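Justification of resources, computational component.

The compute hours requested in this renewal are based largely on the per-chain cost of generating structure records like the one below. Each record pairs the submitted sequence with a full structure-token output. That output is archived, and it is also reused by downstream analysis tasks.
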Amino acid sequence: MGLHERRQREKESIRANILQAAFTLAKTEGWGSLSMRKIADAIEYSAPVVYDYFENKEAILFEISLDGFHKLHIELLKAQQKHDTPEEQLPAIVDAYWNFAFKNKEYYQLMFGLGMQCCGKGQMKKEFSSFQELIYECTYEIIKKNGSNPDNACHMSHALFSAVHGMISIMMMRTADIPSTMNKTTLDETVSAFIKSL
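The structure output for this chain reads:
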């Protein structure tokens, strides 16, 4: 391995360590307490080294959120591909979204700015809207099958997204007084009623 390749590999390793340290700190202390100094201390480098790789904390948060959206996108596609009809795909996609949110709370909070400022404004990537796009596709296909007006698909799918994201947000911000089983039942009933209404 040449000198250039070795240096490049070292740079990639330090960059990955910065992102991993930031995520680990967020899991233990919360996103609000994250700072460039704490990240530098965690990887045992000086703060200027961290700034060599990322302009500011916002840039680190954006990279981590992008990774979260990518992971979510993969889970949604897996759920969709397990079923053949849009009536089956839609609940499976919603379930995958719900499960991702609660198995990856730190990612979800960062991705959607729950309890903090949302990062990545003006830097949206394709993966950011994959959930909305997938439920739109299913909604459109079901409406078309039923002979309803396909012009309603955008409005209807946005309403479903809002309902699902709203339930998740409420549960994440008020875990003490809302039973998770009740919310999952409400979610399932909402999706079922949504499909019947199309």
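The chain has nine helices and no strands. Residues 48 and 107 are 26 Å apart (CA to CA).
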